[in-house]
UniProtKB/TrEMBL annotation:
Residues 7-150 form the NYN domain. Pfam families: NYN. InterPro entries: NYN (IPR021139). This is NYN domain-containing protein. It comes from Sphaerochaeta pleomorpha (strain ATCC BAA-1885 / DSM 22778 / Grapes). Gene3D superfamilies: 5'-nuclease. GO terms for molecular function: RNA nuclease activity.
Amino acid sequence: MKRKNNAIYIDLENIPGNLDLKSLFDELTLKHNADENEENIFVIKMACGNAASIKKIESKLAEYNFSIRDTPAITTTYKNRADLIISLDALETIIINNPAIERYIFITSDSDFSVIMETLRKYGKEVYLVTKESVSNKPIFNNCCDEILIIEEYLPKSKVEETKATVSKSAESPNTTSPEKNDKFVEELILKVLEAMDPDSWHLVSYVGIKFHQMDKSRIIERSKYKTLSTLLTKLEKDKVIERKLNDKGHPQIKMLSI
């Protein structure tokens, strides 16, 4: 079994206090590996925030052996230094390189972390972001990480349903994406991906999936009516936008049809 060393950092003041760490760790442990023989090991676990934000989730952090840093505000007008402390710790791991970290996971909605995330990718590191759905599609986040997970997926179910009900009744949530907008977004996105490819050639569905995911890092398709790329491609085939076939190795391929 091959080890894959992970470092996970939590910006406590930018996450909900009822975050379900178990479901998040289960997701990160069991999924997202290119090689099925890889085992995700969390060798660094750090959480930073002020005393109030620590108290909300302290017992959960203790269960997972997180290092907890109290970061009180240094003045009455400026925020604390949690982002700086976390960023420097992550950067230090590259300098020390023992153990060598392959994947960094940041749990925050603060765009200040995009600086360290971009730096880590420059050094060939894999970077994940766990953030609120309302900011998950921001270009600044999509351009500095490899994968975006939605934090609402890791809240207690009753709280998620309550949040969604509140949002649906509110007309003052411009950053929240409706299911209908999600449908339109992924429909337009898959067309952009296909139109960027050679129209006279057949393309492996797996390759199309990679390109699509590079454009949809927050996995909006999972929150659309399609749920999966396969279902979306089936609609395009039915609408005669694409045609599909298996190649001589039995791998599915698609090709754009002339419109």
